[in-house]
Amino acid sequence: MLLRTAIFQIAKIAVRFSSDGQASIALNAALGIPVLMIVAGVAIDMTNLNSHRSNLQNVADSTAIASAKELRTGNGGTQTINAIAQNIAQASLAGSALAASTITDAQTIDDGKAVKVTMTQVVPSLVGKLIAPELVTIRARATARLSGSAAVCLLALNRSAIKSLEAQQTALLTGTECGLYSDSTAANSIIAKGQARITAKLICSAGGAVGNTAGLTPPPTTDCPPIGDPLASRPMPSFGACNETGRVISGGTQTLNPGVYCGGLHITGGAKVIANPGVFIIKDGPLTVDGDSSLTANEAGFFLTGTNARLNFAPGANTINLKAPITGPLAGLLVFEDRNNAAGAQYQVQSDDARNLLGTIYLPRGVLAIGSNARVADQSAYTVVIADSVVLTGGPNMILNANYGSTNVPVPEGVGPRPVTLER
User: Fold this and answer.
1) Is 251 helix (H, G, I), strand (E, B) or coil?
2) Short-list 260, 318, 262, 326, CA closest to 299
3) What is the pLDDT of residue 47?
4) In a 3-state reduction of DSSP, which class is residue 100?
C-alpha cells in the first residue's frame, strides 16, 4: 500500500511538470522510477549484506580460534568459553555500528576438544526502507578444534642422528602433560639406557625407539611424520658493536644490562648476578656460570653467536633461575642459538640448582646436554626444548611442565600448546 501511494505521488509530480502532450510519457516514466529504485536498492542491499556477512564470518573465525586456545589452558567449561567468546567478539566489533545488534554464542563440543561459535547480526535493508521498515538477520558459524594428541614440549630436530633423544644411567625425563618428539628416522632415534626413564603423554619417533618397557612410558609411537623446525622463520636478533669484551664477574652482587658481550661472559667466585630484562648477545665466547655462583634472569633472553658461543652452567653453579622475555625479539625464548654456528656444539646444564627455566630453549644446530644430579626445570610453569639433539647423563630429573596458562611468557607457535585448526 505504501509502495502504491509513493508511485502515484511521484506520478502526480511528473504530470504537474509536463505539458499535456507529454503527460502519458511522464506518467509512464514516473511509474518506472520506483521500479528502478527498487532494483538499485536490491543491488546495494546484496552488496552490503555480502560485505557484512564476510566481516561477520571473519569475526566468528577469529573468535572461535581464540576461544579454542583457552581449552589448552584448562578453561574448558561452556559457560567460561561463552563468556570469553563474547568478550573477544565485542572487542573485534568495537566501533562498529552493528556491534549492539550482534549476538555471540559459543559452546564446547567433542569432550572439550573444540569450540563452536554462532554469531547473528541484524542489518538494515535499503529496500525495506522504500517499502516499510525492515531488518535482515545474517549468521556466521565457525568451529575451531585442538589438533594432535599432545603439546610439543621437546623436539629433537636431527633427521638422521642415532640417539637423537637419549637418556643414560639414572637420568629421568618427564613430560606428563606434553609430547616428546624426535625427527630422526634412525632405528634407535630415541633411547633409554640402563636405569634411565623417559615418561610423557606421548613419545613419538620418526624412526624407531630402543628401551625396555619401564624405560619408555607409554610405549613410543614410531614412524611419526617429522615435525620440522617450528622456529625456522623466527628472525635472529640484530646487534651492533661490543658493549663488553671478555667480561668476568668474580664475587659480589651485580646487575647486568642487555647488550653485546664479546668474548663471552664468565660468572664465578661466588658472584650473584641479576640480568635485567632484554636481549643479551653472547658473542665469540661462552656464557659460563661456575664457582658457587648464581645467575637470575628476569625476562631476559640469551642469543649465542660466533666462535665458541656456548652455554656452560657448570656443576659448581649455585643457582640458575631464568625467565624468558615477554616482549621483543626473544619473546618466549631463554636461549637462541645462531643458525650459522658450527653444528654439534654442546650446551651444558650441569648445575644441581637449575629448577626454574621458564621459556623455550632453541638450539637448532646444537646438543642440549643435561648432566646434573638433581631436578631440572621442575619449578617452571613450562619449559620447551627445541634442539638438534638432546642427551641426559648421570642422575638428572628433568621435568617439562606444561602450565602455559599460568604465566605471561609466550610460547612460540608450533610448540607448546596443541595447535588449533579452523572448521566451518
Assistant:
1) coil
2) 326
3) 75
4) helix
